[in-house]
Design goal:
By secondary structure, the protein is of the alpha/beta class. Helix content is 56%, strand content 8%.
Amino acid sequence: MTSPSAGSDAPLLDKALRAARDTRRLAIGEGSRHEAPALFEAAFGRRPAVIVADPHTLEAAGREVLAAFHREGLSCAEPFVFGEDVYADIEDVERLEAAIRDVEAIPVAVGSGTINDLTKLAAHRLGRPYMAVATAASMDGYTAFGASITDRGSKQTFNCPAPRAVVADLEVIAKAPPGMNASGYADLLAKNVAGADWILADAAGVEPIDLDVWETVHGRLRTWIENPTGVARNDPEALRGLVAGLMMSGFAMQAHKTSRPASGADHQFSHLWDMQHHTFDGAAPSHGFKVGIGTLASLALHQELLARDLENVDVERAVAAWPTLEIEERRIAELFGPGELAAKAVEETRAKHPSPEALRDQLDRLRKAWPEVRERLARHLIPFDEVRARLRLAGCPDRPEAIGISRERLRVSYEQATFIRRRFTVLDVARRFGVFGESLDVVFRPHGPLADATPAQVKMQ
């Protein structure tokens, strides 16, 4: 159940909780950190707890949560506090796992994406449930099934349950470091293009849409993203809607047991740049900011395909031109060079590379359904210029240079992103129909949506 302070979304959140596989309790509101002991006890009884945090999240909420546990007489082990250099990789999962293996306690993750994912996977490997206390509205992973962790140089989603209880204190979230809540806004806005990718996968016969899960994400998405300036100002109601939308996206992934409901080509760009260890001005751009640029890239391609009469494409010609797996692997070697990233790209490409017969079936389905699909996508998608404006108003980067990605690199990233994940997206549709290169020419041409930024535009960023 949710707390009453969840606002007008409380009934919707309650419904999602009843359908959730893992999460049973959720508190959203001003001061809800003080409800943490009650939610913990309702979820786990009087079992001991262990706070997991980093130095910043310990100060933001961890110490107060620990004090609240002590006031309620709940036993707590010594907190595990990562260093400043904590990163969502398998080595830090193993560090946490080793530190709390012999501590008979339920982990309580106090933090945002990194701390939550590390705790989620470590707790699962130890056979324990866990609880999350959100310190920023920076991503949708709090209530999601699975943890996004880097292992052997590759960003991977490890299967593991979502937290049994989640606390999101809007007072704490409003004080999050600059950019974190904007990052969450970009992550939530991306659900629009992720949904468009699912529409294409459904039409191609690759992955059917689960209508209940779809409604969980898209039923109120436009309401949750309607106030980007409020997010930038840390307005309580805007943050409440943002948090609700992110939690609902996580519940959708929890119900579906994959990230398909909330992640499409937009996230493939972000994962690619993660795997390439991309930094800008000495630091890695946030997940949400990378996803925001990936959203613009995906949307530009979606809109270019909408202008095409794909129902008239010569399917047999497209099948005849389809590269063999051997050719694809040679292209991967050219794009990535040697190393773990290339090996991962080969693995993912082998998993989704269709035979000529399977490709013919996919293209026939898409071609026949295209007039209806195109109309549905046109209704569903938020226009490119509006998405760019929303990102800017929320305080997010709205041009690739703002996260250190040149237009030249972005164009190469389109093809690279196609290979690194087996998920069927707009990237695969363009490649299968044989219009990938032509479409990118349109997207990047002068006055196109992703034309080179002028020096004045770069300076403004």
